[in-house]
Design a protein that fits this description.
Layout: H1 10-35, H2 49-62, H3 71-83, H4 85-94, H5 100-107, H6 111-124, H7 132-147, H8 152-159, H9 168-184
Helix pairs in contact: 1-6, 2-9, 3-4, 3-8, 5-9, 6-7
């Protein structure tokens, strides 16, 4: 369900997340090329960070760590991770090869600056006026970026901005924060 916030329509919401995905994939590829000292861009295939995150989400669903793609089930997962320290180890130990690229880029620190700082700022700055919910999202991301990893409180606040939760890119951004929390937090 889409709600209108100020002059922010469902269509511009989709455009924001689509632009965010394009920016993130482009910048991630550039970072991988420079950090791996690859001189030929064609050596790295097309990258879709969000496809990799979708694989992680599918892994969570398949292995019953996540019951559904609804915000209530994401809240349940992050609260369970907070209260059950063995769950973190269980998830990390059972992750399969479909999640290896995601683990690689998150461990190298490529993703945090892209998704939670650079790209949202670039995309938001092209909007006028900036919708209130994007300002709220940006504030939460800035808090996460300052810490270099997300706390449960940050994830809860992002999930509860539920007018965006149905958007795949928004939801997968939160899913990626969960893997960052698993790896670093």
């Amino acid at each position: 369900m889409c709600f209108i916030t100020l002059t922010f329509s469902c269509k511009s919401n989709k455009n924001f997340f689509s632009d965010l995905e394009k920016c993130t994939n482009k910048n991630l590829k550039t970072r991988l090329i420079s950090s791996n000292k690859i001189s030929n861009e064609k050596e790295i295939p097309e990258i879709s960070l969000f496809d990799s995150i979708a694989n992680f989400e599918a892994f969570l669903l398949k292995n019953k760590f996540l019951s559904s793609k609804e915000n209530k089930d994401y809240l349940s997962l992050i609260r369970n991770l907070e209260s059950n320290k063995h769950l973190k180890k269980e998830i990390l130990d059972s992750m399969d090869s479909s999640c290896s690229f995601l683990k690689y880029v998150n461990n190298l620190g490529h993703v945090m600056p892209l998704i939670y700082d650079g790209c949202p700022v670039q995309v938001i700055n092209r909007k006028a006026p900036i919708p209130e919910e994007l300002i709220k999202m940006k504030t939460i991301y800035e808090e996460i970026f300052a810490l270099t990893y997300p706390k449960t409180e940050h994830l809860e606040r992002l999930i509860l901005l539920e007018t965006n939760f149905e958007d795949k890119i928004y939801r997968l951004g939160i899913c990626n924060l969960i893997i960052i929390k698993l790896l670093l937090g």
